[in-house]
Each structure stands twice: as C-alpha cells, then as structure tokens.
C-alpha cells in the first residue's frame, strides 16, 4: 500500500526573524488553497515619507 502524495494531518513549521519596527496589531494571515499569506505592516514611526522640495527663485 502506498501513501498519498500529501498528508493532510502533517505539520509544517517555519520561523522567520522580523524587525522590531512592525505594527503587531495590524498583522493579517490568510490561508487559501494551501497557501499561507502573512502581511506584516511597518510601524508608523519607521515608514518612509515623501518630502516635497520647493525650487528657489
């Protein structure tokens, strides 16, 4: 008897080190068709911002 190509009860673990400048309250995770998508937003304090430069006369 051969085993199925995948095991629905199997366990997978992956760890990643994230920077400390994240918005932990805004983390979202979705699982769709076996694909896990994790969105980790940056903290407001570290987001880049655009500064407009005015041309001199």
The helix content is: under 10%
Shape by Cα distribution: elongated
Query: Which percent band covers the strand fraction?
Result: 15-25%
Give the spatial strand order of the biggest sheet.
Answer: 1-2
Task: Name the quaternary structure.
Answer: single chain
Find the count of extended strands (DSSP E, 2+ residues): 2
Mean pLDDT metric: 82
Distance between the termini: 83 Å
Uncertain ranges: none
DSSP helical segment count = 0
Helix and strand pattern:
EE
Protein described:
The structure is a single chain. The protein contains no helices and 2 strands. The chain is mainly β. Strands 1-2 form a two-stranded antiparallel ribbon. The protein is elongated, with a radius of gyration of 21 Å. The mean pLDDT is 82.
Short description:
The protein is mostly beta strands. It has strands spanning 28-32, 35-39. The termini are far apart.
Question: Topology, pairings included?
Answer:
Layout: E1 28-32, E2 35-39
Antiparallel strand pairs: 1-2
List its traits.
mainly beta, 57 residues, elongated, single chain
């Amino acid at each position: 008897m051969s085993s199925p190509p995948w095991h629905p009860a199997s366990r997978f673990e992956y760890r990643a080190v994230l920077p400390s400048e994240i918005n932990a309250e805004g983390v979202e995770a979705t699982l769709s068709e076996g694909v896990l998508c994790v969105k980790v937003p940056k903290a407001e304090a570290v987001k880049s911002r655009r500064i407009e430069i005015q041309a001199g006369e």
